[in-house]
Please model this.
Amino acid sequence: MVRDPSAWDIEYEGWIDKQPDCTCGVFTVTQEGEAPQRVEVMTTVQIESMLAREMGKEALSDDERSRLLEGAGRRLISECIEQEGRVRPMLYLTGQIFRSRGAERRLLKECGLL
Model:
């Protein structure tokens, strides 16, 4: 089932530390006529470190982390809607998103970090 994610409103609420080695972007996702849904997009310190190195840094700043989680989260939520026709309450930014060569740089560019 392929659905158009443009029919959904994806609002980024910010990020929180979920666990010592994990941060979480929080989104409110709404489809017209439906109740809003909270979606959390999780990432790990390892993924953040990999992306920071790609930027020539040791770690992401809070602003960079927020921009990363917002951009990557919107992308993951849109892909979930396209593929499943719904959203899931929790999604993960994992190494799987970086399967193709140069994916790290493309993501950083999409998020306005390069």
